[in-house]
Amino acid sequence: xxxxxxxxxxxxxxxxxxxxxxxxxxxxxxxxxxxxxxxxxxxxxxxxxxxxxxxxxxxxxxxxxxxxxxxxxxxxxxxxxxxxxxxxxxxxxxxxxxxxxxxxxxxxxxxxxxxxxxxxxxxxxxxxxxxxxxxxxxxxxxxxxxxxxxxxxxxxxxxxxxxxxxxxxxxxxxxxxxxxxxxxxxxxxxxxxxxxxxxxxxxxxxxxxxxxxxxxxxxxxxxxxxxxxxxxxxxx
Length: 236
What we know:
Elements: H1 2-7, H2 11-24, E1 39-41, H3 48-54, E2 71-78, E3 83-89, E4 96-100, H4 106-115, H5 121-132, H6 137-146, E5 148-152, E6 159-163, E7 168-174, E8 177-185, E9 190-192, H7 202-215, H8 217-223, E10 225-227
Antiparallel strand pairs: 1-9, 2-3, 3-4, 5-6, 6-7, 7-8, 8-10
Helix pairs in contact: 5-7, 7-8
């Protein structure tokens, strides 16, 4: 642990939060506050409102207050560009447009990269050890090498593509062809807005998705946000 703390500037804070969570009896730990990141905490989590107030961070571009010098004329979703088109009139008076997100889900990928400071190598290693006990050797090998594996529900016949740091894709076979139903996004404790990152390390979240799908598929769908495949949030 001392070696990790010498190489990871956030390790001391992360370990301190771990000790505090154990003292308070919080099995899921305490979400890591990150500068300039908005933390969205599960409402039923203890002190959720206080944690979100403490970790307010910067708002996402779409949530910022309207600028008085720019007039929004219209907005609509472009399926071809896979983004929101906002028609604006700047002070110059020349009508133009803006796109959000500007590069499909690349902005999510970049933000997730920054949020990786919230996780520790030791915690992800422990999560991988647990995940390995829940899967076949072949599925676990696929996950280690590609960050992805699939499992078909015996209950519903739906095939789930579990993806590291991306929503789970639900697929259904129709006339011999696999069709995407939606992407299921669920963070059991909290997540950082505008990213794929959750408060738990990535493999712990994969384990949560997998076990909830197996145990209570209806609840899994009810708890998860269902993103259409053409939305950037789906990460497809």
